[in-house]
Design goal:
The chain is built from 4 helices and 10 strands, in the order H-E-E-E-E-H-E-E-E-H-E-E-H-E. By secondary structure, it is α+β, with helices and mostly antiparallel strands. A hairpin with a 2-residue loop joins strand 8 and strand 9. The two termini are about 45 Å apart.
Length: about 210
């Protein structure tokens, strides 16, 4: 009888210890989980990328005003400007560069560049992978949020575990992972789960365990 009691006591202790370890592990995991920042300063400017389409407007010079594609090599050609790098510049930077070249032919040229069709450079794109209806890379827009990205990919699949989704982000040369609550946002309408994105973010939507 004494031996049986000892066996039962040992088994009970083992169960208690196992439960304690499990609870401790879950608590540690929750402490390690970091929610995505809910605010983002308005500092990101759109960077032109290959395959963007640009409207180049030269004031009082309609013959020089054109809509041009950015070639895969990142360059454009406009009237009087045979070849100029456009990729990795903002529209303002490109406009000033065009003005410098056009100044050889036009007195005090005033150029405005606007992006008509967005694609963006690789480093600026947002990638949505996993259990999205249409996983893809999309161009970053200023003040883009997780909701914007999910609309672009058509939402989640029925197998998605939305509240286990994460954003993988590179900050100061270090890769960080942030939790996002897509189920709460898309299924329950909790707007507090809608967080800003940053250029280069990767949104990973895992499959549900069951």
């Amino acid at each position: 009888m004494f031996k049986l009691q000892n066996v039962k006591s040992a088994a009970t202790r083992a169960i208690v210890i196992s439960l304690a370890l499990l609870i401790s592990a879950c608590a540690a995991q929750n402490e390690a989980a970091t929610s995505a920042p809910s605010t983002l300063s308005d500092t990101a400017e759109y960077i032109i990328g290959p395959e963007d389409e640009l409207d180049v407007f030269v004031w009082q010079n309609p013959d020089l005003s054109v809509t041009v594609p950015v070639r895969p090599d990142g360059r454009i050609s406009t009237p009087l400007v045979d070849d100029m790098v456009a990729a990795s510049k903002t529209s303002q930077q490109l406009a000033r560069d065009l003005e410098k070249v056009l100044a050889k032919y036009v007195k005090d040229p005033l150029v405005t560049v606007s992006v008509k069709t967005f694609n963006g450079p690789y480093s600026q794109q947002i990638r949505i992978v996993g259990q999205a209806q249409q996983p893809m890379a999309i161009a970053f827009r200023n003040r883009m949020t997780v909701l914007d990205a999910m609309i672009a990919v058509g939402g989640m699949t029925e197998f998605a575990s939305g509240n286990r989704a994460v954003i993988v982000r590179t900050e100061d040369g270090e890769q960080k992972t942030y939790n996002v609550r897509l189920d709460d946002l898309l299924l329950n309408g909790d707007v507090s789960a809608n967080v800003p994105l940053q250029p280069g973010d990767i949104l990973i939507i895992p499959e549900s365990w069951f």
